[in-house]
Amino acid sequence: MIDVQIAIIGAGFSGLGAAVKLKQNGFDDFVILDRGSDFGGTWRDNTYPGAACDVPSHLYSYSFEHNPTWSRSYSHQPEIHRYINGVADKHGVRANTRFGTEVENAAWHEDERRWILDILRDGTREQVRAEIMIGAVGPLCEPNLPDIDGFDSYQGTIVHSARWDDDVDFTGKRVAVIGTGASAIQLVPELAEVVGRLDVYQRTAPWIVPRTERPYSATEQWAFANVPGYQSAVRGAIYAMNEVTAFGLTYSPRSLKPVELVCRANIARSIKDPEVRRKATPTFQVGCKRILRSNDWYPAIARPNVDLVTDGIASISETGIVTRDGTEREVDVIVVATGFHVTDSPVFDKIIGAEGRSMANVWDEIGMQGYKGSFVHGFPNMMLMIGPSTGLGHTSMVYMIESQLNYLVDYLKTVRAQGITRTDVTAQAQRRYNADVQHELRNSVWVNGGCASWYKDHHGNITTLWPGFTFNFRRITKKFDIAAYDVERRG
Ligand code: N01
Question: H or E segment at 300?
């Protein structure tokens, strides 16, 4: 049995950020558990060719660890992965971390006022007992495999974009990619260069703006490192621009028109064939799903060795993919770029709260609800990082993570100062909070834009996204508001 004050599950951006803040504030008795072999979370796992971030580098990093040496205005996966591991080393949290450790389940034990986690490492089962648990697994960690007839019968190679297999050689092969989301539009142009033939199966065409990525010059990097305040000013400018433009767009259909025109011009400029152009043009309101950024997606699908297939997949055979018109296209490899289990993550089945119910069970009933994205009624002493209603489509998740870290630190300081043994957000506070969030969202393009997206839970509510300016989330997470919680104290 490993006894600790705090157990953090996940060593990605949010788990690492939590660990650094715990250390900085004198909470040294913690362990990080992660099934991978390194820090990085989604930036460790998503190694598909072309993987990159669509938030500018200087904003997509911790405010307490600026990185003057970003090589490009938008960073690619290897550089972000290196950055995260550099932060972990600098802050000395590797010693607190157990990699290769799968948390099989975590249950709140009322009699002990503890979370008990069953973990599996190198074939050995063990338990971790913690006063407080921080769930930092991230919303984009459990790959979603498409529910298509015959999927299991396919005899060729299947690769998910989030579990890339470097040993698969695509050279000259016949390849299918299922999906045209953020992952697919990055990997398709790379694959198109090396494969023999590429069939891209599109269910919904995405809206795509040009990507303004460029390398930073040595002079710029020097300035980031040496000119006082320069990097902060660049961060601030990107942040402000993202907030004002994207938030305005989200709530004002009229202001979305110019974005749509930019996207349409992008299509017209890149694709000459009218039929491919028609297929590539979305039919829902821009902004309803994440707006993607690419300069090479349209040129890629216009290539002679690439076929954009929009007939709809009927089934998968032993040798290929069959569309609804009966055509079978044989392929050697199927790449599934079909996203993640977000609102239905299997992780939720593994967390058992005070009434013996799993989080999946509770959320099945009420939808994916929490309080300030951080606590869930019935799950005492547990904080979720990037919990319900914290996701963004327009700016850096690291900003939201750091807001939650403020809340976490103030929560822990309150617990320490007041001798608190049990904290549970009240059902009433959670209900009110979620009613307010849904009210804020009612006029958003995510609700009214005529698309199906992973932003919605199975009740049809947008429970993944923060509805307002992100500085408002920073404001409401500044202080731990103990009045919203049922609290027990020692003695
Ligand atoms: O996943 P997605 P993703 N049959 O869910 C299709 C972040 N991210 O991995 O649109 C056929 O967006 C599905 O079709 P449809 C970012 O937050 C960021 O691409 O549902 N098709 C869709 O086209 C992003 O939002 C970056 O009709 C099926 C695709 O698969 C999130 O990760 C890069 C299907 C899934 O798209 C997820 O992105 C990468 C089926 N049965 C990821 N099931 C950057 O920062 C699903 N699809 C750049």
Answer: helix 297-301
ipTM of the assembly?
0.99
Domain extent listing, the chain: 2-39+93-142+341-489, 145-215+221-338
Query: Class of 2-39+93-142+341-489 per CATH?
Result: alpha beta
Which backbone phi and psi does 163 adopt, to 5 degrees?
Answer: -135, 60
Helix axes 13-24, 77-90, angle to 10 degrees: 20
Only one residue has tokens 């389940």, namely: 105
Report which ligand 1 atom has the smallest distance to the Cα of 204: 27
Pick the more confident residue, 246 or 212.
Answer: 212
Q: Quickly list DSSP for 450-482.
A: S---TTB-TTS-B-SB--S-HHHHHHHTSS--G
C-beta of residue 133 within 8 angstroms of C-beta of residue 313? no
Residue type, 28: D
CATH topology of domain 145-215+221-338: FAD/NAD(P)-binding domain (3.50.50)
Residue 132 pLDDT more than 80?
yes
Token representation of residue 388: 């319900």
| Distance from residue 157's CA to the centre of ligand 1 (Å) | 20
Pocket probe mutation, ligand 1, options 279, 338, 340, 342, max atoms within 8 Å of Cβ? 338
Query: Please, which pLDDT band fits residue 246 given cuts at 50, 70 and 90?
Result: confident
Q: 325, 421, 339, 16: which is closest to 147 by C-alpha?
A: 339
Which residue owns the Cα nearest ligand 1 atom 37? 339
* 102: β partners: 120
pLDDT for position 247: 72
State pLDDT tens for residues 209-230.
999 999 999 999 999 999 999 9
Q: What's the whole-number mean pLDDT along residues 255-274?
A: 92
- The pLDDT value given to residue 117: 98
For the four alpha carbons of 451, 454, 460 and 461, in that order, the dihedral sign comes to negative
